[in-house]
Specification:
about 290 residues, mainly alpha, Vanadium-containing Chloroperoxidase, domain 1, about 80% helix
């Protein structure tokens, strides 16, 4: 990594550190309001710190309250979403620069590809060939259509529309980036694969679709054990799709890393935009 990369890394780390401090501040501030009778030494000190910040820097105090409130979507939820999105974009950029500049990541790609050199055992080949279909365009379209039908049945048109836009428009973004990077695929493919290599379309699509389903699971499923089990299963599906692309020698390891990173960033962007549209529509309806 060059000096610029380390600088970006430092800035992102600083941003996340400030975010953690702010989140801790908000959490403790809420705890203060619930324990006014016997605050103790720690809460008493934090209460004095809160009062000092309110008096010394009222604008910063108000800004923190707006950015970190749990009552409005544009508070803590938007702050965390923005931090996650920009962090993922930085990570995607770092991955892209890594293999284009032929640094350690490029060497890692070569080592992984040479180490695997295709999958030798027949059962492993068959397993990964089946697993990779979970990220195919047809499978993604069919699963997305089924999930959209479920959402429409439950009168959740906003999320049904969001799913269609995130999955559909995301493919356009993916194709554009593939054309821009124009990276050749590795040799020795065990399944047919066309077009350019970076970022991995299967990794991107599986992250967007199955990640969206994870969000829906936590909204619609009430039992905690079922939520956790479904989340673990879907995460394994996403990971297996990505692994299959490398094991079948149709992608470099960094292609899959880039696809996952880009897919998660795109998912965060889509969910945040949907929440903003809902809030805007609700605000307009309330004023009518």
């Amino acid at each position: 990594m060059n000096v610029g990369s380390y600088l970006w890394l430092g800035l992102v780390a600083l941003f996340f550190a400030l975010l953690v401090v702010a989140f801790a501040y908000l959490t403790l501030r809420r705890s203060l309001s619930r324990s006014r009778r016997s605050p103790g030494v720690l809460f008493g000190a934090l209460r004095r710190l809160d009062g000092w910040l309110r008096d010394a820097a009222p604008r910063m105090h108000r800004m923190l309250r707006r950015r970190l409130t749990l009552r409005e979507w544009h508070g803590l939820a938007l702050t965390l979403a923005a931090a996650m999105f920009f962090g993922l974009v930085w990570l995607f950029t770092t991955i892209a620069v890594g293999w284009t500049s032929r640094d350690d990541l490029y060497q890692f790609d070569q080592a992984v590809h040479a180490g695997l050199a295709g999958v030798s055992s027949d059962w492993a080949v068959q397993f990964f060939r089946l697993a990779t279909h979970l990220g195919d365009g047809l499978t993604v379209a069919l699963v997305a259509a089924g999930v959209a039908a479920f959402l429409l049945y439950h009168r959740d048109g906003w999320r049904a529309a969001a799913l269609g836009v995130v999955v559909g428009l995301g493919q356009g973004v993916l194709v554009g980036l593939k054309w821009a990077f124009a990276r050749a695929r590795p040799g020795g493919n065990l399944v047919e694969a066309g077009f350019y290599s970076f970022p991995s379309g299967h990794a991107f699509s599986s992250m967007v679709l199955y990640g969206f389903i994870i969000v829906l699971v936590w909204r619609y499923v009430r039992r905690e054990a079922v939520r956790v089990a479904a989340t673990i299963l879907l995460v394994l599906v996403i990971a297996t799709v990505g692994l299959s692309r490398v094991a079948l020698s149709v992608h470099w390891a960094s292609d899959v890393m880039g696809g996952f990173t880009l897919g998660l960033a795109w998912l965060v962007c889509g969910l945040t935009a949907t929440r903003a549209a809902q809030a805007y529509r609700g605000g307009r309806a309330g004023r009518c």
